[in-house]
Amino acid sequence: MAYERIDKPVGTGVRLDRPMMRVTPKSLVLNAESNRILSETGISRVWILWDAERCRVALKAAPPDDLAAFGVSRTKIPNRKSRQATVGAGTFLKRIGWSPPKRPVSVPADWNEREQQLEANLPPEYILTRVDAEKSRAAARGNSRVKRSRLES
């Protein structure tokens, strides 16, 4: 019996030619196009900027020796260029009250050449307001006190 070649349907690949940012609970993952932009501009460290009014995040180029900036980690694949990049942003996401669904959220990003920053709008439905975040933390503290008092009696 001869082999039959099975082709994937055209247009179903996951490759995107537009910059994208995937938000996980502890990081911002940049797709190949976003990584290409940052690589070509020589960016290895970024400042994370937050516009709370518009729920907009920006990764702005920072000097390579700035220890307060976040590092851009690129995936190393032998004999291939890096495809994606990651910015460990757990502290930032916690500060804005990021409350994601069970899966990472992907959002389109735009390169702002003038400001040398990658910008994206985060879905406001996944961002707790400061009041909501404080209530959530207080409830968590209250629950732990209840558990402790039950254990002590």
Describe the structure.
- By secondary structure, the protein is α+β, with helices and mostly antiparallel strands.
- 25% of the residues lie in helices and 28% in strands.
- The chain has helices at residues 32-40, 90-96, 130-152; strands spanning 20-23, 27-30, 45-51, 56-61, 70-74, 85-88, 105-112, 117-121.
- Strands 1-2-6-5-3-4-8-7 form an eight-stranded antiparallel β-barrel.
- The model is unreliable at 144-153 (pLDDT under 50).
Through-space gap between termini: 74 Å
Largest sheet: 8 strands, antiparallel, barrel
**Beta content:** 25-35%
Tell me how many strands there are.
Answer: 8
Helical proportion?
25-40%
Tally of DSSP helical segments: 3
Task: Record keyword descriptors for this entry.
eight-stranded antiparallel β-barrel; 153 residues; 8 strands; alpha+beta; disordered C terminus
